[in-house]
UniProtKB/TrEMBL annotation:
Catalytic residue positions: D134, H182, S376
Residue intervals of the Peptidase S8/S53 domain: 125-422
Recorded family membership: Belongs to the peptidase S8 family.
Pfam families noted in UniProt: Peptidase_S8 (PF00082)
Signal peptide coordinates: 1-23
Listed name of the protein: S8 family serine peptidase
Gene3D superfamilies for the chain: 2.60.120.380, Peptidase S8/S53 domain
Keywords carried by this UniProt record: Hydrolase, Protease, Serine protease, Signal
Coiled coil location: none
Length: 691
């Protein structure tokens, strides 16, 4: 699928503590309101720029805390004074209130199916694991048996009120859904085996889930779900992703309906990390319809699948939340069955008491199944469909899975901000998924559709904050971002940039099927090489090729992109963060030499020109040109006598580019491969840092 690049400039508003002139950290809107009227203590989620900075900062302020394993976040109960101290600390990025969340329910009754691909294609979610972050899972239910369907069941325990705080993930819990029943119904919608309805005369395993052979990880946050418990659930899933091969995490809860997308919200940070790690993340749209602008604030994060609820007649359920017409983020992605959904029942729970199935032919169903409605029910259905797509094509990326579900949706007579792409069509989605070339490998290298702030910051090659070293000129190409890209004539030309962020995507125009290479340095350290290649590129068919360099670390970075081959075309970069002004200034100092190469064959005659390169000299570029029929070669020798750059082709002029790593006396060397009496000139420049 073709990526659509957009430019996005909307930034979340930074709030500061009441009575405080300035703060290094962003303060969440609910916490800001609490600070105006409450004296504390305040239960909060604190985000840091780096994991290793958390303990020194908090212990230095004598603050008890509860830390996440995989993300630089902690839960803490703070006084106002402690909050002010943390907000001003340079290693703290944001502080948000640990508010209560809600599970999304809407009572009704009846049944829906979704078994076509199971019965006709034998696609049932085999080999796929779904984490259910919810109130818990009753794995004593015959449809959700522990060790079979539910391969791990975790009760999440976290308590900020204890000295020092504590958290625990109690694995092997038979029933982690003892009070709500919400998570048990959700789990059955994804992957219930239907064992309790195995002998139904209408269809074997009549009440099974959409992906009955998928496996489940129950993450039981209890009935009193808060941001901290939700974060702990994400933390467990990310930390144990490889251990359990977790592919999908489904979330039928939320809060803050109608709020704007806030990439700094801790839940959005956590869902992005799961997405970036290769998990499909689904979220319920919420049940605040039919009013507009009522979508769950966590469902509108662009990297998650935002699920609206449909009726048995494939209309939009009245209770399903709506977005805002024309808004970039405030719209569902897909509508799925969410009204009158029969699934697994957790007896002796609040939700389990609602809508028990009364079937005269099968009175035993009363104890095992119940029927309820809500976007909570639609969301796990989509998670189960994602499992089906991964069964038929395990190499699909999360971006591809969402796009396939949307591309194959059936149209509905509603606006996109109400139903998204339309009503989910499982059969069409499975068929398309089986034919698409998977892009998971590229995704896992960091080439994701979405950045942590939503859109990547798109930087054109003409941006004045980029510095080009070496011989560059603009060349036209219809495939380039603005129909033009920068062409480097010689190898070792480079682009310099300063970015704030941990990921950069570099874009190139390829005009033939030859292989070229680049090296990227961050803060003077090589972070890797990449091959730039397109099998189908030609002079008449240019191709745009992108490569991503990930895990650069948080904060500011000076990036150097070195072209290891000549004739490369650079078409700008995308930053998961922002491009900033280069913090140094440079000056270019020209030099020139001239001479005449006498009669020479196979480099018998050699001319040498010494150059002194100092501590602040960054790079050297030079061209060798001559006026008669000859073949001269060009070399640069370092102070130790090693050849560190060369140009020995049949071209006139020859050119070389070199990045200075140590000062000293270097030597430009001209040799006569074929020469009679050949006048030549050397023109070059030394780039030096001036501050």
């Amino acid at each position: 699928m073709k990526r659509t690049h957009k430019t996005f400039s909307a930034i979340a508003v930074s709030l500061v503590l009441s009575g405080q002139a300035a703060a290094a950290a962003m303060i969440g809107p609910k916490l800001n309101e609490q600070l105006k009227s409450n004296t504390g203590p305040f239960k909060v989620i604190v985000s840091f720029d780096e994991h290793q900075k958390m303990a020194p900062v908090l212990e230095g302020l004598n603050i008890p805390y509860l830390a996440l394993q995989t993300m630089p976040m902690v839960g803490a109960a703070l006084t106002k004074e402690q909050l002010n101290s943390l907000a001003a600390h340079p290693n703290v990025t944001s502080i948000y209130a640990d508010t209560t969340l809600e599970y999304y329910n809407y009572n009704s009754g009846e049944i829906t199916g979704g078994h076509f691909v199971q019965d006709n294609y034998n696609v049932t979610g085999k080999g796929v694991t779904v984490a259910v972050l919810d109130s818990g899972v009753d794995s004593t239910h015959p449809d959700l048996t522990y060790g079979d369907t539910t391969i791990e069941n975790v009760k999440i325990v976290g308590d900020l009120d204890l000295a020092g705080g504590r958290n625990a993930f109690i694995e092997g819990t038979p029933n982690s859904d003892t009070s709500s029943g919400h998570g048990t119904h959700v789990a059955g919608t994804v992957a219930g085996s239907g064992a309790a309805s195995a002998n139904d005369e209408r269809r074997a395993n009549y009440h099974d889930g959409i992906a009955p052979d998928a496996t489940l990880i129950g993450l039981g946050a209890g009935e009193g779900l808060s941001i901290l418990y939700a974060l702990l659930g994400f933390d467990y899933a990310i930390a144990n992703q490889e251990r359990f091969d977790i592919d999908i995490i489904t979330n039928s809860w939320g809060g803050g309906d109608g709020a704007e997308f806030d990439p700094n919200n801790p839940i959005n940070k956590a869902s992005f990390q799961a997405y970036k790690n290769g998990m499909v993340v689904t979220f319920a749209a919420s049940n605040s319809g039919p009013d507009e602008d009522t979508l769950n604030q966590y469902a509108i994060a662009p990297w998650v699948i935002n699920v609206a609820a449909g009726t048995p007649t494939r209309d939009l359920a009245d209770f399903s939340s709506r977005g805002v017409a024309g808004h970039q983020y405030k719209l569902p992605d897909i509508t799925a069955p969410g009204e009158s959904i029969t699934s697994t029942r957790a007896v002796n729970t609040a939700l389990g008491a609602l809508g028990p199935v009364t079937d005269p032919a099968h009175p035993e169903y009363y104890a095992y199944y119940h029927t309820i409605s809500g976007t909570s029910m639609a969301t796990p259905f989509v998670a189960g469909v994602a499992a089906l797509l991964l069964e038929v094509n395990p190499q699909l990326s999360p971006d591809q899975i969402e796009q396939i579900i949307k591309d194959t949706a059936d149209p509905m007579d509603y606006a996109p901000h109400e139903v998204g792409a339309g009503h989910i069509n499982v059969k069409a989605a499975v068929e398309l998924a089986s034919t698409v070339a998977g892009e998971r490998a590229e995704f896992m290298k960091g080439d994701t559709l979405w950045a942590r702030s939503g859109e990547w910051e798109e930087v054109d090659d003409a941006n004045g904050k980029l510095l080009f070293e070496g011989k560059w000129r603009a060349r036209d190409s219809e495939q380039a971002l603005n129909d033009s890209a920068m062409h480097s004539k010689y190898a070792n030309a480079a682009v310099l940039a300063s970015i704030r962020g941990d990921r950069v995507r570099l874009n190139f125009i390829v005009k033939d099927n030859r292989t070229s290479s680049i090296e990227v340095l961050s803060d003077g350290r090589s972070v890797g090489y990449a091959t730039i290649y397109s099998e189908t590129a030609s002079k008449s068919n240019h191709e745009r090729v992108s490569v991503v360099f990930d895990d650069l670390g948080s904060g500011l970075h000076d990036i150097q992109i070195r072209m290891l081959d000549k004739n490369m075309m650079f078409d700008g970069l995308d930053v998961d963060g922002s491009l900033v002004d280069i913090g140094v200034t440079f000056e270019k100092n020209p030099f020139s030499f001239s001479g005449t190469m006498g009669a020479s064959a196979e480099n018998i005659e050699v001319h040498e020109y010494p150059l002194e390169l100092g501590e602040k000299d960054v790079s050297l570029s030079a061209t060798l040109a001559w006026s008669s029929v000859a073949d001269l070669d060009f070399y640069l020798i370092d102070p130790a006598g090693n050849t560190v750059a060369s140009s020995a082709s049949l071209e006139n002029p020859e050119g070389l580019q070199f990045w200075v790593e140590q000062p000293g006396t270097y030597t430009l060397q001209v040799t006569g491969y074929i020469s009679a009496a050949t006048p030549y000139t050397i023109d070059g420049e030394i780039t030096s840092q001036t501050n």
